[in-house]
Amino acid sequence: MGLTTETLKAAFHRLEDGIGAYFDELNGADGKLGDGDLGITLTRASRGIHEVVDELPEDVGQAFLKSAQAVTKAASSSFGTLMATGLMAAAKATRGRTEVPWAEVSGLLDQVLAAMKARGKTDVGMKTVLDPLAACAVATRGLDDPAALMEAADRAITETMDAFRDKPAQVGRARIFGEKSQGLDDPGMLAFRRIVDVLKA
After folding, report:
1. Among 102, 114, 135, 200, which residue's Cβ finds the most Cβ atoms within 10 Å?
2. Where are the domains of the chain?
């Protein structure tokens, strides 16, 4: 079996149950380079989805769409907007299907990445959430087992964050800090890291 609405429901339940453990960490990391509300954003987004999760339709695309709408309503910050944009791209790519083969996940991530690049007016290589996302798309290419996909994504995120940690931020409010951002994890990257941590638990 591949990616279904039941898979999404289980993932969203794990997100709502687990992301709160990183609330202070995410707010703290964001406070060094941004508004300090990233933990709040992810908590609101996960709670927003939780409100509709039991009503998600069997059509995977429609399930992604309803989730995107919930995030847009609950978390209107920049990261919330990017999160909703990614979910919208996934909705468009899977519309009309009740199951998506795991082998298509990499291509799905490519489409999510393209949409987020366009929405954020930025690109890979600028020390943002796009970098680990792009790395995951590459690392999961050709894989059709969910456990292998998660393992590859987990490794790709770790390697990407290690590679970018000592580079200066180039996008958003974080770029204002210039050299002071070197040695710090980008908050968006860290948020992506923690989302995957929750989902793999």
Report:
1. 135
2. 5-200
Q: What angle do CA 136, 107, 62 make, to 5 degrees?
A: 110
- CATH 1.25.40.340 holds for 5-200: yes
CB of 144 closer than 8 Å to CB of 102: yes
| 8 Å CB contact between 103 and 125 | no
pLDDT, averaged in runs of 10, over the chain (201 residues): 96 96 96 90 97 97 98 93 97 98 97 96 94 98 96 98 92 66 91 96 77
Q: How many whole angstroms separate alpha carbon 18 and alpha carbon 160?
A: 23
Q: How much is the pLDDT for 124?
A: 97
In whole angstroms, give the CA distance from residue 153 to residue 82.
Answer: 19
Return the pLDDT at 178: 65
pTM comes to 0.94
d(CA 170, CA 85): 21
Angle between helices 105-120 and 78-94 (to 10 degrees): 140
Type of residue at 178: G
CB under 8 Å to 10, separation ≥6 — which residues? none
Q: What is the pLDDT of residue 170?
A: 80
